[in-house]
Prior knowledge:
Elements: H1 3-21, E1 27-31, E2 43-46, E3 49-52, E4 57-58, E5 62-69, E6 75-81, H2 86-94, E7 100-105, E8 108-109, E9 113-114, E10 123-130, H3 132-141, E11 143-144, H4 147-153, E12 172-173, E13 179-180, E14 195-197, H5 204-207, E15 218-222
Parallel strand pairs: 5-11
Antiparallel strand pairs: 1-4, 1-7, 2-3, 5-6, 6-10, 7-8, 7-9, 12-13, 14-15
Amino acid sequence: MNKPFLFLCSALAALSFSSCQQKQYKAYFLTESSNVESGGAFNVRYNGRMYNRMPIMSLKHFEKFKSFMADDGSYGAVLYTSKNYRMRLFSETHQNIGKLMLPVIDGLAYPPIEIDRGITDGQVIIWGGLTGYDLRKLGETLDPVDPEMEEKRYLDKNPRPKPEIPKDAKPSKDMHGRLIPELYASAIPEQGDSYSGATGATQPAAAEKATPQEPGLINTRKRKQQ
């Protein structure tokens, strides 16, 4: 085997390893756990509540998205499920009515949504907290409904602060002594904050003007933990 060939193989291997080491952008949704006794084996914790570690939906289950301006100046987004996974979304939300659904975007937790019905229109809304960086990363996997609008909102860098971990935070363990993974937000939310109401949306444009009275949209009233 000649030296040029060996050099080429080594270079390709190094390139492949480097690409595998790049951070993968992930977005998924967790549901509130019904089996908190299983502890760290099947759950993660956020803001004092336990959520199933296995997502009910992730980016691979969606096909397109449309962003909108949130009240706080950040971006929200409507995610559209592909037809093949609409029944999955309905089934997962229908059997979890009354529980919370937690959006986790790029490793950060967002305010949970109260599931009050099974989603039949295949749409899930992230109601705020996204940046132009998030929109660009979403656009690498999902098709934008309005490419021109999304292009103006994209950012190359991630301007969000790192998760604010409380100084007195200590690793939590379950009754079996296993560590319970903890999720954090880029900004500490108020205790018990969540969106309550339906988890679907009728039209992306309607999401920009959503009010508590509009059917099929998340009610943005705050819901205190019980």
